[in-house]
Design goal:
The complex is a heterodimer. Chain A is mainly alpha-helical. Chain A has 7 helices and 1 strand; from the N terminus they run αβαααααα. Chain A has a domain of 153 residues: Cytochrome c oxidase, subunit III, four-helix bundle (Four Helix Bundle (Hemerythrin (Met), subunit A), Up-down Bundle). In chain A, α2 packs antiparallel against α5 and α3 packs antiparallel against α4. The radius of gyration of chain A is 21 Å and the shape is flat. Chain B is an all-alpha fold. Chain B has one domain: Cytochrome c oxidase-like, subunit I domain (Cytochrome C Oxidase, Chain A), CATH 1.20.210.10. Classes of the chains: A mainly alpha, B mainly alpha. Chains A and B meet through α1, β1, α2 and α5 of A and β1, α5, α6, α7 and α8 of B. β1 of chain A pairs parallel with β1 of chain B, so a sheet runs across the interface.
Chain lengths: 234, 589
């Protein structure tokens, strides 16, 4: 459970930092009048949707941290046999990186009002994300073909489970992305379009980060890293 | 006295208006509504309905325990199904949904001075997914093999094996799917509650001016957002084990002489995941109760809450601490002694912020102008009950005491007092308190008195003897207690007594439900602010509040939520949106 505790520690640190800016030492019974003029006391200046997405990503992060925790705990048992990662994952990773870059470009273009670039970026991101999903399915097929079935070993089970869960999140992202794209083609208001492109980019970067972490986990690097940390500590 | 801004100088329209979705038809107004108030009522009604099912299930259990062998239809399997569904419904589908989905939806936008939740559409989806989760849960009663009988903790491996009701039938699958749906739906709602508190507070409503109700619900929601994923992970993995034959939790097992295909899994892993959710869950239910009860006490004692800052810090502190105590539910699962020591320590440390809260409630009452209204009666009953339940928690938090008591009725009595009866008392108090705002009419006083006294005294008559028979060694989870040495004559009599009391208390809830329905039409007209309270929900132009809550202009907040009996003021309360200082003499002590 140490992974999830570390994750929560990060969240708690962030929450603590935020709370420390909220005048928690104030004595509200002595203060009258409007005191919200100080920036930040009446909510952030960031768009509400971004805050909402941020909170949601924290929840998603928590979910994957818990899967990771479970992974490490199960891994410690004797029947664990690591499986060889299919090569196609490297390709998938680069495609997902591309997808993220495309959305970043789209988001920059949206800020500058270049609608054509925005459309190009959105289309590229959508197609590459689809390619990623197909690539993941290919990885599953390869593993199955090589006899690494879901139930054969917990390492296999975790592989399918975690990649599947990540794929579902990408799929959900694609729904959002297609709505954004529909807006980009049907002439949504620039401010609105910009916000939704930025939200997509945020979500994509986060899922890319999650994927890299998962990749490291499934490849066994995360375990070696933690082993090194443990040795340093003891 | 700090009066930071001249009151008249602030133009009210500075707060950004929200884009509200305006309903066009009966369907979008009352059924697929995006108005948080309607969603709140939908949540509450659904939770109450499913809660009644759980109440009936508890009657069934008490029939069996009080009068063993009398009722043929309560087979051992049925008994375990009743236990499981009763626990699961009460903890998750009733308490969590009612506090966060019900009170959260109704009170957050009104109390922070917002027109609605920030993502109304997602909020609506949240309710419908919750309803779907409830329907899936209910459907398991009609599925082949009936609902799961694995106990509300659903411990593997037994949860998905043949001997457990629903283990190899549909029961456990439907249970897991229902929980997964609930978590998805809750996450949608939870995002709304958190972001609304963060972003939609009206002008002048700083965090330190929020009513404690909002603090409680806010912190509980943050906790729930971080804790429910653990249950989600556990459910998904168990679903894989059950449906696809993986071995996340399932060790190698021989069942009925046959080797199962599972092997090597760790049931303890499930317990860690489950209790990583399960313990914060206790406080997810308790923190809103803490918050609400603070407001009830302050309002009905006509006195400002004592130690507001401490109350806020304690809420946040309890929320943080509750994530590092989960393994105290696993003392009997076997663990390294140092772990036990660590978790016992963190468990006992939580008593500190909790005790601060109790002291502050009592000190708020001290020399207050106490009105023994029904909400106040329930609030007072809560304090007593929570202290009683909390004290036995100190027993059970210690490893050496917990180990012998863990499988006895003592534990049942403890958690029913602390997370069953106590929060339910607050829910009742809150309903009596806010019903006039929701419907415009007061609940009937006489029926309310009857409901309170029967519920309060009855709950004690149920659970006090239960502590006692627990200490005698009467085990929990057993459906038949006839032939055991610990079951003396007096233990049997006590059990029968408890059962009769349980029926009585249950009957009082029927009276309460009748009151809820009857008073919509026949209750006394309440007016906008019957309790003469300060918080914003009582200052709406219409009662019940209309769509958009506050008419044309959002209120501006000039003071904290607890300006009761301010010396020099004309009335004994000053609403949060009334400007100016009243020559108060409240200087720092």
């Amino acid at each position: 459970m140490s992974v999830i505790l570390v994750f929560l520690l990060v969240i708690a640190g962030f929450a603590g930092w935020w709370l420390s800016h909220q005048r928690l030492m104030a004595k509200p019974w002595l203060e009258q009048g409007v005191i919200g003029d100080t920036i930040g006391l009446e909510g952030s200046t960031l768009p509400t949707a971004k805050i909402g997405l941020g909170v949601f990503l924290a929840v998603v992060g928590c979910l994957f941290a818990l899967f990771t925790s479970a992974y490490f705990m199960r891994m410690a048992l004797s029947d664990w046999q690591a499986l060889p990662l299919p090569r196609v994952l490297w390709f998938n990773t680069s495609v997902l990186v591309l997808s993220s870059i495309a959305l970043q470009c789209a988001s920059v273009a949206a800020r500058r009002g270049q609608i054509d670039t925005v459309r190009l970026g959105l289309a590229t991101a959508g197609l590459t994300a689809l390619a990623f999903l197909i690539g993941q399915l290919v990885a599953w097929r390869d593993l199955t073909a090589d006899g690494y079935l879901l139930t054969a070993n917990p390492a296999n089970s975790f592989f399918y489970l975690i990649t599947g869960m990540h794929g579902l999140h990408i799929l959900g992202g694609l729904v959002g992305l297609s709505r954004t794209a529909a807006g980009a083609w049907n002439g949504a208001r620039p401010a609105r379009l910009r916000l939704s492109v930025e939200l997509c980019a945020m979500y994509w970067h986060f899922l890319l980060f999650v994927w890299l972490a998962i990749f490291a986990l499934l490849a066994g690097w995360a375990a070696s890293f933690i082993e090194i940390c443990r040795q340093l500590l003891t | 006295m700090v009066d930071t801004t001249p009151a008249d100088a602030i133009p009210p329209a500075e707060v950004a208006e929200m884009e509200l979705y305006h309903p066009h038809s009966w369907w979008t107004k009352y059924v697929f509504s995006q108005d948080a108030k309607v969603i709140a009522i939908q949540y509450s009604a659904t939770a109450t309905a499913i809660g009644m099912v759980a109440l009936v299930l508890s009657w069934m259990m008490r029939l069996q325990l009080g009068f063993p062998g009398t009722f043929d239809f309560i087979t051992p399997e049925a008994y375990y199904q009743f236990i499981t569904m009763h626990g699961m419904i009460m903890v998750i589908y009733l308490l969590t949904a009612l506090f966060l989905g019900g009170f959260g939806n109704y009170l957050i936008p009104l109390m922070v001075g917002a027109r609605d939740m920030v993502f109304p559409y997602v909020n609506m989806l949240s309710y419908w997914i919750y309803l779907l989760a409830v329907l899936v849960l209910v459907s398991s009663f009609f599925a082949p093999g009936g609902p799961t009988g694995a106990g509300w903790t659903l411990y593997p491996p037994q949860a998905i094996m043949t001997g457990t009701p629903g283990g190899q039938d549909w029961g456990i699958m439907l249970m897991l799917v229902s929980l997964i749906l609930f978590i998805i739906g809750f996450t949608m709602g939870g995002l709304n509650y958190v972001v609304t508190v963060l972003q939609a507070r009206t002008r002048g409503m700083t965090l330190m001016r929020l009513p404690l109700t909002v603090w409680g619900i806010f912190t509980a929601t943050v906790m729930a957002l971080l804790a429910f994923p653990a249950l989600f992970v556990a459910c998904v993995m168990m679903l894989f084990d059950r449906a696809l034959g993986t071995s996340f939790f399932m060790p190698a097992i021989v069942e009925m002489g046959e080797q199962l295909q599972h092997g090597g899994g760790s049931p303890i892993l499930f317990q860690h995941l489950f209790w990583f959710f399960g313990h914060p869950e206790v406080y997810i239910v308790a923190l809103p109760a803490f918050g609400i009860v603070s407001d009830l006490i302050s309002t009905h004692a006509r006195k400002n809450i004592f130690g507001y800052r401490m109350m806020v810090w304690a809420i946040v502190g309890i929320g943080a601490l509750s994530f590092v105590v989960w393994a105290h539910h696993m003392y009997v699962s076997g663990m390294h002694p140092y772990f036990g020591f660590f978790f016992a320590t963190t468990t006992l440390v939580i008593a500190v912020p909790t005790a601060i809260k109790v002291y502050n409630w009592v000190l708020t009452l001290w020399r207050g102008d106490i009105h023994l209204t029904i909400p106040m009666l329930f609030a007072l009953a809560f304090i007593v009950t929570f202290v009683n339940g909390g004290l036995t928690g100190l027993f059970l938090g210690n490893v050496v005491v917990d180990v012998p008591l863990s499988d006895t009725m003592f534990v049942v009595a403890h958690f029913h007092m602390v997370m069953g009866v106590a929060p339910i008392l607050v829910i009742f108090g809150a309903i009596y308190h806010w019903y006039p705002k929701v419907t415009g009419r007061m609940l009937n006083e006489a029926m309310g008195q009857f409901h309170f006294w029967v519920t309060f005294l009855g709950a004690y008559l149920i659970f006090f003897p239960m502590h006692y028979i627990g200490l005698m060694g009467v085990p929990r989870r057993y459906n038949e207690l006839t032939d055991m040495t610990v079951m003396t004559e007096s233990a049997h009599n006590l059990n029968a007594f408890i059962s009769i009391m349980a029926f009585l208390v249950g009957f009082a809830q029927v009276v309460f439900l009748f009151n809820l329905i009857w008073s919509i039409r026949h209750g006394r007209e309440a007016g906008g602010n019957p309790w003469r309270a300060t918080t914003l929900e009582w200052q709406t132009p219409e009662t019940p509040p209309a769509h958009g809550n506050f008419g044309k202009e959002l209120p501006i907040v000039y003071r904290w939520a607890y300006d009761y009996s301010v010396p020099g003021a004309k009335e004994d309360f000053i609403p949060q949106n009334v400007p100016g200082s009243f020559g108060s003499s409240r200087e720092p002590a």
